[in-house]
Amino acid sequence: MPDIDARLGRKFLTDTGWNFASFAIMAATGVILNFFIAAHFGIATLGVFNQIYAVYVITGQVAVMGVNDSAQKHNAEFMDVKAERDLLSATAIWLAAAIGLATAVAVYLASETIGRVADSGAVGQGVLLAAPGLAFFAVNKVLMGILNGRRRMKAFAAGQAFRVTVILICCFSVAALGLPGPALGASFSVAEILLTPVLILILRPPIWGFAAGGRGRVWVEDHLRFGLKALVNGFLVESYVRVDIIMLGIFVSDHAVGIYSFAALFIEGLYQVPVVVRTIANPVLVRLLVSTERTALVRFCRRTAGLGFAAFAAAAGAVVVVYPYLAPFFPEGLVTGSHPLLMILAAGLAVYSVFIPLDYILLQAGQPGRQSLLMTANVFINVALNLALIPFYGIWGAAVATALAFTISSLNLNLAAWRWLGLRGGVLLGGAGPALPNSLDSGGRH
Q1: What distance in Å separates the CA atoms of residue 398 and residue 316, rounded to the nearest whole number?
Q2: Is the N or the C terminus of the chain less surrounded, counting Cβ atoms within 10 Å?
């Protein structure tokens, strides 16, 4: 691959630009939405909304069962084999639809129990309204995974922006109609239902042809095998930056969660900055790992890590400067009470931002089980730290625990890349070591 750096570099930067534009829309929408909820409905409803969102995102990972990761990875791997690429995409869509529907029904029936666990009937009511969206969320995740794997990142960016825009409009509509706070949960369902036909029109997947012959069944089995191994990773990645919110919901009041979640809103937004780079990098990593070209791989990792940190630093600097000036626009004590929490969380995330663009590298190497093991360790550490500090220090303990967890996760990724990919010293050093393994636990039958 003599011209891989030039070829990938041009498209990589273009795709990154489009997806940062989409991210800007998503970030602005998130800020407007949280500001609006806090100002119109109150801090307690902001806490309820963020708990509904956390439950929705986490159960959404069960709904898609890791099939989206399989669709993304294998679409990149079979980029040049159209018949196989279309077949694996069709089977992934139907499989996600079936699992998503079952999950939606289960969450709908369990919504009251979820409300009791959160000690908030409003949370349970909101989850009930959000549950139907999970069936469509699963299909949409796979469709987006296919777009990502095929490096159709302009369409990917458009889909992301469309979703958050619909959520924002729905929340405004809830307020205009004078509906209670828990009705905000319906916005998630409406957004996913409307997004599905948009993605189908963009992608136009051949969803019927897989039914004939045995190859479709083979791909169903492989998607399930890969997806089940990747499920823990997908589940925990989405919950990783929400562990603090979930645990605070158990230990402290909705009002305290509201104050913390105001700072956490900005941290989650800042976390998504290097995640944008990761999304663009994933299909490129697949091709580099398949080629076992160590020099090109390490060079790409360094460039990607640098871009992730630079983007984070620029965004974090802007947030730190602007944040204190928001105080006059919100209920008294919200900004001043959450500002120190923001600083603590941002410090830990600054370290992790270097490695976030590469933290799916095991998955892209065809090692979903080991990717899940890595994320399990990260989340276990995060939960343990939050459990140790929140009962004694409340929201302050959650901030310190989460910042420490971010830093430890950076070390864990380097150790995993050294041990399982032979990159001596970690993803940025990539010193001499054994040949890069590929597809060790993904089935490997293709």
Answers
A1: 20
A2: N
**C-alpha dihedral, 293 to 294 to 298 to 303, nearest 10°:** -20
Position 227 scores a pLDDT of 93
* pTM of the predicted model as reported, rounded to 2 decimal places: 0.82
SS (H, E, C) 284-344: HHHHHHHHCCHHHHHHHHHHHHHHHHHHHHHHHHHHHHHHHHHHHHCCCCHHHHHHHHHHH
pLDDT band, very low/low/confident/very high, at 210 (cuts 50, 70, 90): low
CA 57 from centre of chain: 9
Question: Can you say how many angstroms the Cα of residue 163 is from the centroid of all Cα atoms in its chain?
Answer: 14
Please tell me the least confidently modeled range out of 294-298, 368-372, 375-379, 426-430.
Answer: 426-430
**Total residues belonging to the chain:** 446
- Which among 147, 140, 125, 156 is positioned nearest to 63, based on CA atoms? 140
Q: Residue 244 in 3-state DSSP?
A: helix
Smallest CA-to-CA distance from 276 within 17, 11, 18, 19 is with 19
